Amino acid sequence: MRAAELAVPFPTVRPGTPAIEAARLLAGADLPGLVVVDEDGRPRTILAGTQVLRMAVPQYCQDDPALTRVIDEAAADVFHRGIGDRTVADALPREHRELPVVPGDATVLEVAALMARTRTPLVAVVGDDGRMTGAITLDALLDRVLAQ
Amino acid sequence: MSATAWLAVAIFAVAYVLIATEWTHRVTAALGGAVAMLLIGATDAEHAFFSEESGIDWNVIFLLLGMMLIVAVVQRTGAFEFVAIWASKRARGRPFRVMVILVVVTALASAVLDNVTTVLLIAPVTFLVCERLDVPVVPFLIAEAMASNIGGTATLVGDPPNIIIASRSGLTYNDFLVHLAPIVVLLMVVFVGLCRWLFRDAFRYDPERAAAVMRLREADAIRDKRLLAVGLAVLGLVTAAFVLHTALHLEPSVVAIVGGLVLLVLSRLDAEEVVKDVEWPTLVFFAGLFVMVGALVHTGVIGRLATAAADATEDRLLLASMVLLWASALLSAIVDNIPYVATMSPIVSDLVNNAGGLEQGQVLWWSLALGADLGGNATAVGASANVVILGIAARAGKPISFWQFTKYGLVVAAVTVGISTPYLWLRYFVFAG
């Protein structure tokens, strides 16, 4: 089984997409993450749902868990407003990471190894021209592997 | 001076420049300097590792390690968050009152814990409170870094330079309390007044915003009451043992390391996790520094400097203490005050001996402590707490530039060192009898 057989069409976002829009896309379609593509449709990186979350949660709450407990319920309920007008680019980690991207002829083991190594529940599949043809989620990968 | 001594001076100067400019990590610079000193024969294993005068000061290392272990457990209790939020609520959300309370809490905590830990603990609470009040957080962060440097001056364990001074001088925890705490209280009162003037644009009061602070539930910061009780009990016992250490015949380093280990066991926390919070690079930095400075002692460089300083200030203790106070403040503003005090301590030790011993010459130690601790406020790189605050602010998207900090720092350092000048003169010369 090859990556191209497992890949399905998958929503993408651009670095300039508002982060709140990306969050709605994640929530609306129950996705583990989104593929970030450049102007030419080439995958740049994967935006995991937790990265959007990290942007919404104030830094002081991430630094000090005790402070998350002192915030009253009404304020806690609207913590997502912390995203403000920031974009997907703001949510991406600054340091360079290995791209969770495989060519269509990659085996399931290659896909699984890449997911394990990059700790990403989503891998983009690209064609010969480098453009994205689809994506494989961890769920889909496990479904296919365990079904055999 | 021998060729080895000159070479040792050159190595020391290069390492110092690297530490001050941060061209390399300070640990690399200090360790590189120490290795070079060992390789050229400016010191040897016997002196570097086992000599009390010219080797690694294990009292300092273990005192720091013990306090870091205690802090690593205490910061998990939520006590600090509780106190800071509870106190802010008492200020009824009035921004200036909140700032006063936060700087006083910072100064008090800094006297018991180290400065860096204190600002690491207070900064997240400050972000929360300022966000609720909708006031700029930067003035609050700058004021807290400065308060930690001022408050830390009051005790033996409050600021790393004081730990070095105590170990080299033989001055006790109570000596620091009796000689430095009174002036620190006065400096804090003046500092609060300065905050009102320096940060006057930051105190915009909004009743609705103030109500948002009042809704914070500080009691929820504490989840594990047993951990809190054990943490505070051990911290209290350790502080009591510091006060009584001469009567108990226990070195402060022994008190701290015993306290740290006891708390680690009693806390029932995963020791491996807690130990990760110990600032090992800082301890290694100290070890490297001590070997470097020890090499200068071993080769006679420090002895020559001390003799020259003693000749220049012969029988003029007042002049020596004033020069030491202001020169220490100036130099600590430019370089981190830890390497500065590590270098100066053996020189001051000789000067104190020349002045007739600890009884007559101890004003020199207080000049060094006040100059180095308070001078650290002058610039953004003068003290570790300042550097840490700048880092926290940048990470939270509220960067503080070097000059933004320094324009306030210069005023605060000049005023506090200025007030320390008549204090030393009056207490140790005019009313010395």
Descriptive overview:
- The complex is a heterodimer of chains A (148) and B (433).
- With 148 residues, chain A is an alpha/beta fold.
- Helix content of chain A is 43%, strand content 18%.
- In chain A, the strands form two sheets. A three-stranded mixed beta sheet of chain A has the order 1-2-3. In chain A, strands 4-5-6 form a three-stranded mixed beta sheet.
- In chain A, a hairpin with a 5-residue loop joins strand 5 and strand 6.
- The mean pLDDT of chain A is 87.
- Chain B has 433 residues and is mainly α.
- The longest helix of chain B has 29 residues.
- Helix content of chain B is 77%, strand content 0%.
- At the A-B interface, helix 4 and helix 5 of A face helix 7 of B.
Mean pLDDT of chain A: 87
What is the percent of helical residues of chain A? 40-55%
Shape of chain A: elongated
In sequence order, what are the helices and strands of chain B, one letter per element? HHHHHHHHHHHHHHHHHHHHHHH
Cα radius of gyration of chain B in angstroms: 22 Å
Oligomer: heterodimer
Give the overall shape of chain B, derived from the CA principal axes.
globular
Find the biggest chain interface.
Answer: A-B, 14 and 23 residues
